[in-house]
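Q: I'm building a small set of examples for a reading group on sequence design. Run inverse folding on the following structure and report the sequence directly after it, with nothing in between.
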């Protein structure tokens, strides 16, 4: 009797898949951040304001600028935790 499962390849180990996924995600994210930085420098040069939300004269309504800054902080804190988790997990997996 012929079983279909005998013809299927086994999937690769999870740690190899996660390492490849993490490397791909970090590489793509780094590429896009660097691209945004280069495009921003190309557009504004040395005249770029220190704070893009208020640097072009947009001060009113001030609460909207504060909410924008809060969302940026939330985004960066959340992204730091995710990246830090995978970096530490790969570090500890290599020790064991």
């Amino acid at each position: 009797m012929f079983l279909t499962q005998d013809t299927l390849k086994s999937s690769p180990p999870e740690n190899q898949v996660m390492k490849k996924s993490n490397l791909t995600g970090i590489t793509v994210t780094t590429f896009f951040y660097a691209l945004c930085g280069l495009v921003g420098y190309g557009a504004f040069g040395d005249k770029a304001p220190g704070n893009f939300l208020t640097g072009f004269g947009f001060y009113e309504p001030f609460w909207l600028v504060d909410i924008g800054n809060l969302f940026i902080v939330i985004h960066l804190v959340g992204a730091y935790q995710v990246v830090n988790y995978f970096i530490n997990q790969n570090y500890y997996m290599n020790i064991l």
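The mean pLDDT is 78.
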